[in-house]
Specification:
By secondary structure, the protein is α/β, with parallel strands linked by helices. 41% of the residues are buried. It has helices spanning 3-17, 51-59, 78-87, 104-109, 120-132, 134-140, and strands spanning 24-29, 32-38, 68-72, 91-94, 113-116. The protein contains six helices and five strands. α5 crosses α6 (134-140).
Length: 144
Amino acid sequence: MDEFLVEAINEAKKGLSEGGIPIGSVLIKDNTIIGRGHNKRVQEANPMIHAEIDCLMNAGRIGSYKDTILYSTLMPCYLCAGAAVQFGIKKVIVGESVTFPGAKEFMESHGIEVVDLSDEVCIKMMTDFIEANPTLWNEDIGEL
């Protein structure tokens, strides 16, 4: 398994252990993790703190993002895809899009290479969470 996806999964598990939604993200530059984060919507009662947003916030100001790769355990939504477009991230690698199709086409239409690994660990983690917490999940994706 991709070592950086493993780190994103670890972030997702951390979020779940905190009572949150198990989505994790890492930002890579020069084959090194420069930012990591997980969904904190529940923990901080803030609808904006998705995993990718938390990851970018934790990376801080780095100047150009053009040589970075954003990993996420789940296909980014439009909010997070918009951040990737805004900052000029050229590649996004995701664990899965089975449980949530996200904004793949939007990112691709803005020149981002999107790689979907269809990872079974990520699929099971989200499937189990959604089955156990359908209301919370529907709130997270704006379907309530």
